[in-house]
Amino acid sequence: MNLLGKIFTVLIFIMSLVFMSFAVAVYATHTNWKMKVIEPTTGLKPQLAQQKEINDQLQAEILRLKNDIAKEKAARVNALATLEAKLLDARDSLTQKEDELAKLQSAHQVLVETNDNTQDMLTVLTDEVNNLRDEIRTAQQDRDEQFAQVVALTDLLNQARGELGRLDERYNQLLAQNATMSRVLEKNGLEAETPVSHIPPRLDGVVLQVSEGDLLEVSIGSDDGLKKGHLLEVFRGNQYLGRVEVVSTKPDVSVARILKPYHRGPIQRGDNVRTKVN
Hints:
This protein is an alpha+beta fold. It has helices at 3-28, 33-38, 44-131, 136-187, and strands at residues 204-211, 215-218, 231-236, 239-249, 254-258, 272-275. Among the domains are: 88-187; 204-275, Thrombin, subunit H (Beta Barrel). The chain contains 4 helices and 6 strands; from the N terminus they run ααααββββββ. It is rod-shaped and about 190 Å long. The mean pLDDT is 84.
């Protein structure tokens, strides 16, 4: 064997070692993907089935929450309609009582004038009795009739005064109730004709979590009166950070979306939120 043959023999031996090392490395790093998928405990297939089951449970929970929100919204609308009907009834009753009071005052004035006229008539009759003794029986009978009329009119006057006092008391009660309602409406920046179904109550909360997609979770929910579409102002101390819109609610928390046109700074967990009342 010459020198060239020896060189090739050594090269063949070295390449054999290299390929054998590659074979050992490939065998050591080989993964049985079929077993990794069908493994009963840690396989990908059981994990996929478990995640599907969790997804079905979450979908059912979302549907239940939507139904609860719809029921709550209908109940609040019915309650508002009931309160508006009571307010209209109170106004109608106040108007009716004011008309009755005006009529009674007019009747009272008539009774007072009638009583004055009756007193004058009684004085004239008394003078006639003193001056006309020959007609004393006729005059006395006439006086008795007039006296009976005065008594009847006096009774009517006393009854009218009692009714007037009762109506005055009721009128003052209605005025007080109306003043109380006006103060409540004024305190909340409302008028009697202002619709209130879209106005959120005055609430304060904090940011619990900020996630991707411009969404954040706050610590106030449907039990506090918050609804989808309500606006919240976000601030940290005296720094205004922006405005968010409620997109979904739960009894004690809500999810809101950051409104880009009002965004003034990064929103973090622990920042304060407050309902915006128009």
